Write the structure tokens for this entry.
Amino acid sequence: MAQILDERQKTILRDIVHHFVLTANPVGSQFLSGRSKLRMSPATIRNIMAELEAMGFIERPHTSAGRVPTDRGYRYYVDELMQSEELTEAEKSNVRELLRQVDDYDELLWESSRILGKILHQLAIVSLPPLSSGIFEQLEIVPLASNKLFIVLSIRSGLVKTIMMEVSSDVPHDRIRIIASILNERLAGLTLEEIRNSFAERVKDVRQLEGEVIARFALNAEKIFADFPGGVRAHVTGTQYILSQPEFHDPQTVRRLMDLLENEEGIAHVVENSLLQPVQRTEPLKLEAHVTIGREHTLRRLEPYGLVTASYSAGGINGTIGVLGPKRMPYNRILPTVCYVAECLSSIMS
């Protein structure tokens, strides 16, 4: 349960968060006295700031006379004080139109990440929905050349995965149709994970009859029915924006961030695990955004950051979209924006 603050304490904490987000400079009582909605003297504000500091909502960085929010202060602000700032109707329309122009599934997710990073000037991450739980719908085999087959795998959610397979010799078109028919009959209704784990067993009685193509499928089942198209685990954009933040003027901080971003699997794991964190519901979207701040992260190297994520649905298979930035982020704008882009993605992909 959130600690109860009185109205004056709430106002000062809200003002400190707002001004620190805007300026990245510690906030002092003299600065607040002329800007707070409550008419208070610098001395009164100093007393209130001392109370907030004693309760762990703000702290004094080094020897500065000003104060900055703590992780606890940011959390209270997000849960209790924040008023969401939605995208304008023009911005929403622009997002929808940009996404609807993209036909390719993977390109759509990359474009979502790019749009989110550009709007919010933060690091944007879109993790791909794992296809393991996707239900196999249909497989097509298209001969491209004497020794190349183009495989189109359709999943019930509406997702399509393609892969190239090489064979040693030309395969007659009628034989290809028979093989596709056999596979479609035997794999129908199974998840990709079930297919990966049992493919060889399901085709063992026709493997000799249908020759190399079935044998190639069995040999490459892990790749053909893999979770992520092309091995891509997540799309990350907006590095240029986050590096312009004052927090990243230190070369060591930049190096640590680059190390983090080089691990694509780790980034995807971070955003997906964030969905287990506390939920902040945004109004009036009625969507859920998950916010993780500072020491709330399970990984210590993420403590300098804030993370806002939301789920999107690709026909029943869920992926995650989010924004990573310094704890000093404009959460009031980031939450509804992440939720809106997730909503658009779900609508288009479903």
